[in-house]
């Protein structure tokens, strides 16, 4: 096992670009290292530890965007009062990730790159129209988060690329909601996740744990734009069926996920409308 | 009094088996079958691995009998020809590097010719699934009293129900582990365990040694809950076999996944009730059928079943009772001891059923119970006359009052009118738990305990009963100090080492404080006698006499005690009649829950736990036992679910086996009635298990009342509750 620990982004990108010696980026390690003891292959591959890349740390504000550096943690967001004021559900979601140990190590970029359909960070980012900034030796490119995933744990990132930042446009929101339905009230993996944001750009509805990827629910958004608030959860069923495809697994059932998603979505939209 | 080992645990100085560094020790690892049932055809070793580096042990290396001896010798230490469950140990490996031995374990393939497994006790086994007798039944037991059929025929009302409870994982914080080494021809085994002499008995059998050829020592143990009652014998034997083969110390420590998959769980159960009541709601007949899933080997199943059926009719008076129980062989890993030991399963069924009976009889659940609770002088199902001075109706009333039941019910009705999604309800359970071994168990155990005077004037309690977080060290210290008038710092507790301490029995069955604690008192009295002191000698007199005796004789003085049953306690194992336990703890628990109809998630918002366990020996420890038991009971009731597939637990990770966190728990308000029991130390009865009996029925009864459903199965996960609620469709589709 080899671990590279560069101090500059350029050096990191150089190392990552060497196809002969592939490296796995390592940020907080809270996804990567979980299965360490039981997965021998995890102990033989090479790692690129990002922790010394100070350029990637922290949160930056500009006039039209909030930018999370690739090493920005949940804790960075929780403790920034401006985030709490402008993007309260970003803080809410961060507070529901694991507990304080994970919140202070886990990164938003790691949550995106890991690509779990049950992620808690991704839905809020997607509801805010976040853009993922990728960089390699060849240069930078940007991918909107709602176009980032192509399949179960498949993302737009190429092996030679790092996520260097997540850019969240600053829009005035009439409504922001985050709902995590887990099997218990803390330290849980979502059985259903939901983020809803309504701005001058319209409704954005994002669901988690109900499809192979975190999913933007465009049919639901259209339904809300065209016909206004639903009168019952069931009125959302048709649109949801077009958007999501929940399954039975160890953690829950397709039936439960579908019904609960409709109910929490119905409730979230109505509360905002009031 | 401070908890003896509290600071060491708090500061991380306590050393568990995984912390014990031994020079030259090897890591041991178990290779398992992966098939639920079949005949081992071939074992293939990947040629890419250098096997000459690795110690490999199979069944042929067992010097004695290939048996993990407990009640029956049916479970092999290592499978020879056939396997009966997916995690059956077949081979053992050892190597200085944990990494190498893990990889080696992955490089072995055990090919099994499959045979049809029997996995579901709700349907009888097919002929090709038979593996024991003609019905796969490990044990059948029955209790009969009065004439049930006639009483049912004459009853004003007969109410039936079927209830199911799932397996439960112990989730002790410290996973299981053992260290073995040989010293001057003696095999030492040290590790995380509840019952040193159970391991000893199994070890001399399988290693083919004399009793003094094996020594079992308990290491600091991070929780047990029954999970370290029988399985540690298996790991101990594995470590011992490897150490004999390698001629080096060997340590085996399970990781969480292996521990959850392979070690025992609470027995799943199906309980059917047919209950007759008269026009006033008094019980006239209880007809109860209990079926438990024992898993692949007998282990402790017969005694779990026994305790289960003895508690199955609850703390109620009924002249006509029939309880039939059977525990079945299935091809899942053996189920075993878990706090409560069969009683939580049958109490869940009975107390849930009491609410169903109450509804059918048009009574509220409190009133139905008030009319039927045992009064002093009444007899239990086994014909045991209860005369212990405890007022069980007063316990119930106290729990109801403390919970604010009546006022809260009004508030809940209001909530249901005004909130679109949230519903609340109150639920109740009355229950009891026998302390100590069942029936003549304690007489057969014949526990012995010593209290020795040390040359420096202190005394040492020598028992095989262990600390696992529940407070044994503190309680024994307190009892001995009080009995002899010494300071707690003048009482030492010997390490539980079978080479040094007599067999005071296993640390199980709520027996340690009550039964063994009493032996501490008796051994203190015997010490005083042997020192030639009068019965009222205390403090300085004892100190001096102990020192002088040591100086004069060059030997320590040892006070001894041996168990004798309280007078008049009689049990007939053939007819299952008589005094099933010397004493019972009694409980009345009330839960308040909130159900969110968006997610069908249940949150317990308040909990009142009232019990009478005799004199409380240590307030903080006792309250901790109750709160821990309630937390564990809430987990079992609402979220802890073993997901099985082909006899294997699918969710053997703490991410997917969900135990409650502190956010999932209500304030747990603990109250003790303290009717002293003369047979126990300072009037104490057993407490450890009682608190796991009440929470599940109280919580589920509360959910039933909150949203008007009739759950019969736990865990009552949101998914299950949604299905129940949808079947009861339409009643609360009201949207604000
Ligand atoms: C106990 C526990 C509780 C948890 N609870 C939650 C929870 O409630 N909700 C939740 O959503 N998640 C949870 N997680 C998962 C995890 O903490 C999060 O997904 C976290 O955001 C991952 O970030 P990290 O920095 O630790 O990622 P790492 O583990 O370091 O990396 C994760 C993946 O992202 C890649 N990666 C990381 N950074 C970059 C980068 N800059 N560029 C390219 N690729 C990168 C890595 O190669 C890896 O594939 C939990 C984990 C644990 C152990």
Walk me through the structure.
The complex is a heterodimer of chains A (274) and B (736). Chain A has a domain of 97 residues: CO dehydrogenase flavoprotein, C-terminal domain (Enolase-like, domain 1, 2-Layer Sandwich), CATH 3.30.390.50. The mean pLDDT of chain A is 96. In chain A, the strands form three sheets. Chain A has a five-stranded antiparallel beta sheet. A four-stranded antiparallel beta sheet of chain A has the order 9-10-11-12, with helices on both faces. Chain A has 274 residues and is α+β, with helices and mostly antiparallel strands. In chain A, helix 8 runs antiparallel to helix 9. Chain A is built from ten helices and twelve strands. Chain B has 736 residues and is of the alpha+beta class. Chain B folds into three domains: 189 residues, 2-Layer Sandwich (Aldehyde Oxidoreductase, domain 4), CATH 3.30.365; 233 residues, Aldehyde Oxidoreductase, domain 4 (2-Layer Sandwich), CATH 3.30.365; 116 residues, 2-Layer Sandwich (Aldehyde Oxidoreductase, domain 4). In chain B, strands 3-5-1-12-9-10-11 form a seven-stranded mixed beta sheet, sandwiched between helices. In chain B, strand 10, helix 4 and strand 11 form a beta-alpha-beta unit. The mean pLDDT of chain B is 97. The interface between A and B is medium-sized, with 26 and 31 residues. Bound molecules: flavin-adenine dinucleotide. Flavin-adenine dinucleotide binds next to strand 2, helix 5, helix 6 and strand 8 of chain A.
Q: Work out the helix count of chain B.
A: 19
Strand order of the largest sheet of chain B: 3-5-1-12-9-10-11
Which homologous superfamily in CATH is the superfamily of the largest domain in chain B?
A: Aldehyde oxidase/xanthine dehydrogenase, molybdopterin binding domain
Bound molecules: flavin-adenine dinucleotide
The CATH first-level class of the largest domain in chain B comes to: Alpha Beta
Instruction: Please report the first level of CATH classification, the CATH class of one domain in chain A.
Output: Alpha Beta
Poorly predicted ranges of chain A (pLDDT <50, ≥5 residues)?
A: none
**Mean pLDDT over the full residue set of chain A:** 96
For the CA atoms, what is the radius of gyration of chain B? Answer: 26 Å
Main beta sheet of chain B: strand number and arrangement? 7 strands, mixed
Supply the CATH architecture of the largest domain in chain B.
2-Layer Sandwich
Fraction of residues in H or I helices of chain B: 25-40%
Unreliable segments of 5+ consecutive residues of chain B: none
Number of strands of chain A: 12
Cα separation of the termini of chain B? 55 Å
**Helices and strands of chain A: which structural class?**
alpha+beta
Tell me the CATH topology of one domain in chain A. Enolase-like, domain 1
Structural class of chain B: alpha+beta
Tally of domains of chain B: 3
- Note the total helix count of chain A: 10
Outline of chain B, from the CA principal axes?
globular
